[in-house]
Specification:
Blueprint: H1 2-22, E1 26-31, E2 50-54, E3 59-67, E4 73-83, E5 89-96, E6 109-111, E7 120-127, E8 136-137, E9 147-148, E10 153-163, E11 170-178, E12 184-185, E13 194-197, E14 205-206, E15 225-230, H2 245-254, H3 281-290, E16 298-299, H4 307-329, E17 355-356
Parallel strand pairs: 1-13, 2-15
Antiparallel strand pairs: 1-3, 3-10, 4-7, 4-8, 4-11, 4-12, 5-10, 6-7, 9-10, 11-15, 13-14, 16-17
Length: 363
Amino acid sequence: MLRTLQVVAIFYCLLYPLAAVRAANTHFWLSTQGFPSVSPLPSSSTTVPEFVNFKGQAGGSIYIWGRPEVGQTLENWSLNLRVSDTSVLTFTSSDVYESNVTSVNRWQDVGEPTANSTQIIRNIAGFSPTHMGLGIGSGTQGSDLYYDSVRNGWLLAKVNYSLQTFTAFKSANLFLQIGSRGMSNLNGDSIDVNAVFGHATETALNAANADDGGQRQTSSVFPDGVIKYYDKPDADFDGDTDVDGRDFLIWQRNFGTTTLLNANGNANPGGAAGQDNLVNHVDLAAWQFQYDTTVFPTLVAVPEPNSAVLFGAFCAFWTAYSWSRQRGRGGCQSPLYPLPEENSSDQVGSAYYRRVPYETDNL
């Protein structure tokens, strides 16, 4: 009996490392930046990227990064990208990145679809059906123009989108999926690839066909990114009608503080949806969106007094003036009849102007 247990233990020790390698995953994640990326593979569902957009903005881009299984070269891949709410955006086009530092590209064929529907863009892809592409992996790190050694990731593709007409603040989730064409490593099959989307601890999805137990065109449990669509901001924090470096310094000095004051770096102050009392990344995005632009203030005139008030004021002034002149002729140096004090109800009003943010910022 003891000998049997020893044999089982030996086999377990020999097979466990192989099982651990076999269970390794291929990672794909989204970023707000292209190369070089400022967003490493997110560590959890709470750290996936947020794509900030504002009213007046035409659209933007979503960047897809990948990291093959350790020791493998990803030779073929296809991905879908889905948005949960089409009232926020629609996908328009895609671009797959090639590395041309050598005479051989990453892929023989690329898939750069335009929008397949209002909600999903399908089969963004890179394939080498006769093994004539380099793929991505440890053997291509030194020759790949789009490999980021700091974050150990390869820039794969960019998806462009256009924003819908703004009606109110909205938020939508983004989900990557294995495309209908699957994916495979060099000299391997789709069933050998387990793809993890969005963040490092998400549940893996297998790239095989559905008949073989695969999970193509299936979204992960948690979103891989979030789209936020805000009303028009005001990043002119110092109130001098332009957005420049001085406004950035105000934001920088107050980053992380709690305030409703625009003058303290809050570009979206308030309590309604899409507004807050925080100086954070949204305010930085607002500054970037409006940088080097002129923010025209709204000029609001206080209504002039009506004709009856003006006539009464004129009569009062003329009476006082005439009375003082008569006293003056008699040798008395009496002062003029006192004019109405400032801010009194009798004073003739005049127009004044004040700045009201947001109203006419044509940006």
